[in-house]
Amino acid sequence: MKHFYVWKFRRFKRWLLIAILAFASALFLWISDNGAFSKDKPVAITKGSSDEPNIGLTFNISWGDERIHDILEQLEKNQTQATFFVSGEWAERHPTILEKISEGNHELGMLGYRYKSYIDQEIEQVRSDLISAKEVFEKLGYEDMELLRPPNGHFDEEILKLAEEMNFQVVHWNINPNDWKNPGTQVIVDKVMKETKNGDIILLHASDSVKQTSEALETILPGLKNKGFQFVPISEIITQAHAKSKIVD
C-alpha cells in the first residue's frame, strides 16, 4: 500500500510540473505578443491592436497628378483621415498637391526619394536616397517626417536597421486589394470589406495608374464606418498601448 501512495505522489508531481511549465510557456508567449519584452531587432509596423476598432487607411503615390483629387474628395466627403506615403521626387514636382493633402488633415509619410526597390540597391545607395528625400521634405516645410514605407514594400533586416538609425519607423500593411492592377471596383470593395479587422493597415494607391480606387472608396469608407471601425493616422496606431509590431519576411 505504501508503494501505491509513493507512485501516486510521484505521478501527481510529474503532472504538476507539466502544468507549471505549460502555464509559464503560455505566459511568456502572451507577454511577448503584447510587447512587454523589448525587441533587439528593428521592426516594421504591419498591424495595430486587435483590441481596438481603429484601422489605418494608407495611400502610396509616386507619379501623376490626376487621380489624387478624386480620392481626396471622397475622403473629405466621408470625413475620413488617411496617411499618404509619397516619394520625394513626386513631392518636389507637386508641392501644391502635397499641401492640399496636408491641409486635409491627412498624415504624411515617405516612400524615399526615387521609387526604386531598396532591395536592388546597395545599403549606402539607400541611405543616400533617404537623405535626399528628407532634404526635399524639409525644404517644403515638412520637417518631422518619421514614417517610411520602402518602395514596393521591399526591405530586409539591413534596411530596417538603417531606417532605425535614421529615426524612421517602417510601415508595412496587412490588407492589400492590389487596386493598382485595376481588378474591378467590386473586387477591391469585397477584399477590403471582408478582410478588414481591428488594427489593420490598408494599402491603396493614389498614382494615376489606379482607375477604380476612388469609386471603390464610395462604398468602402461608409461601409467600414458602419461596421464600427474608426480611421486613424498610422502614428496613432503605432502609439496605441497595445500596438503590435513585427518583422515582415
Mind explaining what this structure looks like?
The chain is of the alpha/beta class and 249 residues long. 46% of the residues lie in helices and 12% in strands. It contains 9 helices and 8 strands. Strand 5 (147-148), helix 6 (157-165) and strand 6 form a beta-alpha-beta unit. It is globular and about 45 Å long. The chain starts with a helix and ends in a 10-residue tail after the last helix. The relative contact order is 0.21. Residues 1-10, 15-38 and 245-249 have low confidence and may be disordered.
List the keywords.
single chain, 249 residues, alpha/beta, 3-stranded parallel beta sheet, 8 strands, disordered C terminus
Fold topology:
Layout: H1 2-33, E1 44-45, E2 54-61, H2 67-77, E3 83-86, H3 88-93, H4 95-103, E4 107-110, H5 123-139, E5 147-148, H6 157-165, E6 169-171, H7 185-195, E7 201-205, H8 213-226, E8 230-231, H9 234-239
Parallel strand pairs: 1-6, 2-3, 2-7, 2-8, 3-4, 5-6
Question: Given the C-alpha coordinates, what overall shape results?
Answer: globular
Radius of gyration: 23 Å
Major sheet attributes = 5 strands, parallel
**How much of the residues is beta strand, in percent?**
5-15%
Share of helix among residues?
40-55%
Q: What oligomeric assembly is this protein in?
A: single chain
Termini gap: 59 Å
* Average pLDDT number: 86
Order of helices and strands: HEEHEHHEHEHEHEHEH
Q: Can you count the helices?
A: 9
Low-confidence stretches: 1-10, 15-38, 245-249
